[in-house]
Amino acid sequence: MIDFQSIEQMLRDTEEQGLPLWENIQLSDCRQQDISREASWKKMSGLLEAMIQADESYREEDRSNSGLTGGDGGRMTRYGRQTGEDSLCGAFFSEVIAGALRMGECNACMKRIVAAPTAGACGVLPAVLLPCRRRYGLSDEALVQALYIASGFGMIIAERACIAGAEGGCQAEIGSAAAMAAPALVFLQGGAPGQMAQACAMAVKNLLGLVCDPVGGLVEVPCVKRNVIGAMDALSAAQMALAGIESRVPPDEVLDAMRWVGQSLPATLRETGQGGLAVTPFGQQYRPEGMEGA
Amino acid sequence: MNLFDIMGPIMVGPSSSHTAGAARIGRVARSLLGEEPREAELRLHGSFASTGKGHGTHQALIAGLLGLAPDDPRLPDSFRLAEERGLRFTFDTCTIRDAHPNSVLIRVTGKSGRTVEMGGASLGGGRVRVFEVDGMACTFSGELPTLVIHNTDQPGCVSHAAGALAQGGVNVATLQLNRGSRGGLAVMVIECDKAVPPQVVEEIRSLKAIQRVTCYIPEGQEATA
Ligand code: SF4
After folding, report:
1. Which of A2, A66, A148 is opposite residue B54, by nearest beta carbon?
2. Of A25, A144, A176, B50, whose CB has the highest number of CB atoms within 10 Å?
3. Does the ipTM surpass 0.90?
4. B200-215 in b/e burial notation, b at 16+ Cβ within 10 A?
5. Pairwise CA distance, residues B68 & B102, whole Å
6. Does ligand 1 have an atom closer than 6 angstroms to the CB of A165?
7. CATH 3.30.70.260 residue ranges for chain B
8. Between chain A and chain B, how many beta carbons pairs sit less than 8 Å apart?
9. Does the beta-carbon distance from A115 to B16 stay under 8 Å?
10. Cβ(B1)–Cβ(B60) below 8 Å
């Protein structure tokens, strides 16, 4: 378990130590796990490398076992290139949307991905980090530091709320991924730790209550496209935080609300494939026989 | 929980419970067998049975039996790999009373004819639990080196095994005892802090009441002795 029980405590401790936030997160985890900083850094760099490789492994012609998934990442990538800045969302956002779709599809098509925090939400972090890397020429070092920031906030979300769809609905997966990505983006833009906390809180709030209702109980529909909204949520929350906008509800209280909302969600909307999109006439066609909770 | 439970693992999709966890269960069965598997019967329960197909659970289990890690890109291709390596397998469904929804029973036979039966459950996030070995209930996570000892239920077996481990300098993390109903057969599951050297396993085997010792070593923790 990490040393920090709350975002507030993490920020206070970091200030007292006089360390950059990413470094304090790394040190705290090394202490807990009894591993060296070099070993920890190597592992985190490996995760970044694996994200990059996963994105490169995408093939437009790949289809998932169920046939529900495939091709949309390629479609979006082409559309983004053709339309450039003239499209509704502009070139950068097109790239983000395409990246999220590609990674979500890679996961559904049994490619090697990085669960962040879960496999279903694996597209959110790379979808925002990799386009930023290209756009701002970011070093791998800065990106690995950003992954420490994201994991530090993720740990507190896991402790105070949850990160499993079966426990807390999709707010816990896509919502958590967005809430990890948002502070990482603030960090990469040179924002202060306080702004990172605000970005995290706003990202959570804006997806609070999102249900987990996968068609056929499979991590495909709506999961793949929800990675897009997770990435967009992270970018907009980070942008607001960088502008000095704050969540009126303090960040830790937002996480507590997330836990309560998760607990209040009926089981049908927590990865059982028995509610929401899963029980639409379309979804029913994929409903497995005698399916119990997943 | 640590940072790398949040960021990571690196795995072949689509599901940490139905794919990554399934591969780990297969790998535990292979390790318990201790040799190249030739034949495997797998029976899926609950959500493994109903949504396994869409999640690649079948391929993942076979990949694990072949020794592939959950992040091995060859995982989706494991059926072809099994054919190349001479592993025949069958899948069926079953209902296991009170079992976790993501459970499987595996009966695997190795090239020497040795057979192991194991029940495993995937708990989420890629973590697994073995709940049965050779018809006897037990519990271990597969994260630590583990000895599964079958013995006749008589005094001295536990102290013999514990003594051999102590002499070999192996610290015991957890110890469970279960007495089956079948003719006084008991099973001891010992999770250890480090891999058990082969001579210690031999020493444990030397007691007459001990019928069988199965040694499970997690990935990347092979004995250094
Ligand atoms: S809908 Fe459920 S399975 Fe899909 S990404 Fe969200 S939490 Fe995960």
Report:
1. A66
2. A176
3. yes
4. bbebbeebeebeebbb
5. 20
6. yes
7. 146-224
8. 152
9. yes
10. no
Long-range contacts of A276-282 (CB under 8 A, 24+ apart): A276/A211, A276/A213, A277/A213, A277/A214, A277/A215, A277/A221, A277/A222, A278/A213, A278/A214, A278/A215, A278/A216, A278/A217, A279/A213, A282/A215
Give the architecture (CATH level 2) of B9-133: 2-Layer Sandwich (3.30)
Task: Identify all chain B residues contacting A32, using CB atoms and an 8 Å cutoff.
Answer: 2
Report whether residue A174 contacts ligand 1, using a CB cutoff of 6 Å: yes
* Three-state secondary structure call for residue A270: strand
Which residues in chain B are closer than 8 Å to A158, comparing Cβ atoms? Answer: 1, 5-6
Contact B7/A147, CB-based, under 8 Å?
yes
Cβ contact A180–B6 (<8 Å): yes
The whole-angstrom distance between residue A215's C-alpha and the CA centroid of its chain comes to 21
Beta carbon of A168 within 6 Å of any ligand 1 atom: no
User: For residue A71, how far is its CA from the centre of ligand 1 (angstroms)?
Assistant: 20
| Whole-number Cα distances in Å, B44 to A142, A238, A256 | 45, 44, 37
pTM of the model: 0.89
For B9-48, the pLDDT digits (tens) are: 999 999 988 999 999 999 999 999 989 999 999 999 998 9
Q: Which residues pair with B186 in a beta bridge?
A: B151, B179
A226 lines ligand 1 (CB under 6 A): yes
Question: Structural domain boundaries of chain A?
Answer: 21-276
Q: What would the pLDDT profile of A211-223 be if each residue is shown by its tens digit?
A: 999 999 899 999 9
